[in-house]
Amino acid sequence: MSSLPAGDRGAASEDQARCYLENHGLKTLNRNFRTRRGEIDLVMLDSDTLVFVEVRYRRGNRFGSAAESVTHTKQQRISSAAKQFLLSQKQWSRHPCRFDVVAISGSGPVPIDWIKDAFRPEG
């Protein structure tokens, strides 16, 4: 995956994460939901829980792990985008929500670390 251009690598990582989560019973509702405030890589349904998924890929850990790259600022952007999603998709507004991170690291057969309920939005 590391020989792909950055944009293609990101899309391939998101595809890999989506397949992994679907194989674990989640259903994809939306991909790359974008607002002025931020983006959500995957919006999925886990039973009756709406799951906002951030997918992060890192070839190595030299500059921190993939999971560590989901900074407080990034969490705020994801939270803002999630609020916009719920405002625009009112049918999901009464569902419980959580924020997961899928961290993909390495090259070749890459390990996936699915961190359920990785963070909670402020306020």
How would the blueprint of this fold be written?
Elements: H1 6-23, E1 27-34, E2 39-46, E3 49-58, H2 72-88, E4 97-105, E5 112-119
Parallel strand pairs: 3-4
Antiparallel strand pairs: 1-2, 2-3, 4-5
Mean pLDDT: 86
Strand content: 25-35%
- The SS-based structural class is alpha+beta
Report the radius of gyration as a whole number of Å. Answer: 14 Å
| Uncertain stretches | none
Distance between the termini: 38 Å
Shape: globular
CATH class, named Alpha Beta
Strand order of the largest sheet: 1-2-3-4-5
Task: Report the total helices.
Answer: 2
CATH topology: Trna Endonuclease, Chain: A, domain 1
Order of helices and strands: HEEEHEE
- Count every beta strand, where a strand is a DSSP E run of 2 or more residues: 5
Largest sheet: 5 strands, mixed
User: Level of helix content?
Assistant: 25-40%
Our count of domains comes out at 1
CATH architecture: 3-Layer(aba) Sandwich
Structure description:
This protein is an alpha+beta fold. It has two helices and five strands, in the order αβββαββ. The chain has a five-stranded mixed sheet, sandwiched between helices. β2 and β3 form a beta hairpin. The mean pLDDT is 86. It has one domain: 3-Layer(aba) Sandwich (Trna Endonuclease, Chain: A, domain 1).
